[in-house]
Design goal:
- The complex is a heterodimer of chains A (about 240) and B (about 270).
- Chain A has seven helices and nine strands.
- Chain A has a six-stranded mixed beta sheet with strand order 5-6-7-3-8-9, with helices on both faces.
- In chain A, helix 3 packs across helix 4 and helix 6 crosses helix 7.
- Chain B is about 70% helix and about 0% strand.
- Chain B has one domain: MetI-like fold (Orthogonal Bundle), CATH 1.10.3720.10.
- The radius of gyration of chain B is 22 Å and the shape is globular.
- The longest helix of chain B has about 35 residues.
- Chain B is built from eleven helices and two strands.
- A two-stranded antiparallel ribbon of chain B has the order 1-2.
- The chains are: A alpha/beta (about 240), B mainly alpha (about 270).
- Chains A and B meet through strand 5, helix 2 and helix 3 of A and helix 6 and helix 7 of B.
């Protein structure tokens, strides 16, 4: 995906956005300004309570900003940390329900869902239920569901936090492949700097409700986490993180 | 990509999937319950005309009495189920209503059922609707077990699941049908089990109405296993009494084995990790 190309439009724009959760008066966002270009893969990192999930919720439409303005597209989809699958629905129906909610007939929704499950390599699991899947498989179902509605922006809220390293590595490869195949704009929230550097074109560091730093990642793909360039990039962000 | 897979609506029973038409689903969801309800009412009406003569009680008549009690419990359960869902949805969809109503539910639950007796006498007994009085008592004792089980169930629904429903536009009736009701299945089963236990517990109070009516006579009791127990005990018919107790225990055990255990197993698939 091209970087710094002015002809590519900004699909998300946060302009001095603040968010206060009432009635407690908790300040989640103070003054957040950033933009995301169409087709970009951006990571939002930061410590607990810095406001990164709140940014995601605002983009997803789950909450409104208290101040400032947000420009975002209509079709936004989300992958949740624990998958957020419905335990009583099969894998196929967990994906299809998103299409049915958009007005698709059940039969058509199921046929379409099959395509997305094939994309995440779960075509053989359509009759299984979430309790029969591993953590990684559940996340893949979540990704398939999120993609099935053909979103303009895909949000991932720490989707790999509960997974083992081997599964995480596989999921990273799957995410990059899906990103290349679909060209969807992706915003990934993570608490791991290395993960953000491995996946993203740009990393936004959040601290105490503001964007504390912006780091374009120009390391060519595939990125080797053991490489000197990779480590240097991680260290640069880490220094800012702990400043 | 694999060859096209024929996808049909799946109903899962004992691990078997098979197709169903819209008509079949409408029949299952509406027609069958209405027919069942009608049959229950007709049967209960028949039992209202049956008198309880302890000296001539046979095993067959005691079994019929048990059947009458079971029908009464079923009707009361259906009413308490409907009322419970109404009360719970009221507080789910309105935080303001929750603030006012939840404490009210707590208070009402604590009021002994017999405190409602003046209401029961005015509404039912005065018009000779003794079955109605018995069902009303059972309804009051069953209702709150279901309500508070469901209220507890609401708090177990993960926030992420509700957020996912909102993000994907699952709203209104679709949300109730595909998310809320399935999420409450485990608590519905537990609440129903407790409600029926409470119902069996209070069956004597519900059927032996004459004890609570000023100037009451045994003619005002309703035909059932509860009234059979009391009348057998009062007239010294210990053999009738013990058979009645055994029948009741057998019925409760069978219900537990054939219904509740199976439902509790079925409800496992609706539980969150």
């Amino acid at each position: 995906m091209p970087n710094g190309t002015n002809s590519i439009k900004n699909i998300i724009v946060f302009d001095h956005v603040g968010k206060v959760f009432e009635p407690a008066g908790d300040v989640a966002l103070r003054d957040v300004s950033f933009s995301v270009r169409q087709g970009e893969l951006v990571s939002l990192i930061g410590g607990s309570g810095c406001g990164k999930s709140t940014v995601l919720k605002i983009i997803a439409g789950l909450t409104e900003p208290s101040s400032g303005s947000v420009t975002k597209p209509g079709k936004v989809s989300m992958v949740f940390q624990a998958g957020a699958l419905f335990p009583w629905l099969s894998v196929l129906d967990n994906v299809a329900i998103a299409l049915e909610a958009k007005g698709a007939a059940k039969e058509h929704a199921r046929k379409e869902s099959l395509k997305y499950l094939e994309m995440v390599r779960l075509g053989d699991f359509i009759g299984k239920f979430p309790r029969e899947l591993s953590g990684g498989q559940r996340q893949r179902v979540g990704i398939a569901r999120a993609l099935s509605v053909d979103p303009e922006v895909l949000l991932l809220d720490e989707p790999f936090a509960a997974l083992d390293q081997k599964t995480v590595d596989e999921m990273h490869q799957d995410l990059l492949r899906i990103w290349k195949e679909t060209g969807t704009t992706i915003i990934l929230v993570s608490h791991l700097i290395a993960e953000a550097v491995a996946l993203s074109e740009r990393v936004l560091l959040m601290k105490a409700g503001v964007i504390a730093g912006e780091f374009p990642i120009t390391i060519p793909r595939p990125r080797r986490e053991q490489g000197a360039e990779f480590s240097a990039e991680v260290m640069k962000i880490r220094r800012e993180f702990f400043k | 990509m694999k060859p096209e897979t024929k996808i049909i609506h799946h109903r899962h029973h004992s691990g078997i999937s098979y197709g169903s038409t819209r008509g079949q689903r409408f029949y299952s969801a509406f027609v069958m319950p209405l027919v069942l309800f009608g049959v229950l009412f007709l049967a209960l009406n028949y039992f209202s005309k049956t008198t309880l003569n302890v000296t001539t009680l046979t095993f067959a008549k005691l079994s019929l009495a048990l059947g009458a009690t079971f029908l009464r419990l079923s009707v009361a359960y259906i009413f308490s189920l409907a009322a419970a869902f109404f009360l719970v949805f009221l507080i789910y969809y309105s935080p303001r209503a929750e603030e006012i109503l939840l404490p009210l539910y707590d208070i009402t639950e604590s009021v002994p059922t017999l405190a409602f007796f003046p209401v029961i006498i005015l509404l039912f007994i005065r018009f000779g609707f003794f079955n109605g009085a018995a069902i009303f008592i059972l309804f009051l004792s069953m209702l709150w077990n279901i309500v508070f089980s469901l209220v507890g169930g609401l708090s177990t629904i993960p926030a992420d699941l509700k957020s996912a429903a909102e993000v994907f536009g699952i709203r209104g009736w679709m949300f109730v049908k595909k998310v809320l009701l399935p999420a409450l299945v485990p608590q519905l089963v537990t609440g129903s089990l407790l409600a029926w236990a409470q119902g069996w517990n209070i069956i004597i109070v519900a059927e032996v109405l004459h004890t609570y009516i000023p100037g009451g006579t045994p003619a005002q009791d309703v035909f059932g296993i509860g009234s059979a127990l009391v009348n057998a005990s009062a007239s010294g018919q210990s053999n009738v009494f013990f058979v009645a107790i055994l029948l009741m225990i057998l019925a409760i055990a069978l219900l537990n084995f054939l219904v509740w255990q199976k439902l509790l197993q079925y409800a496992e698939r609706y539980k969150f990790d």
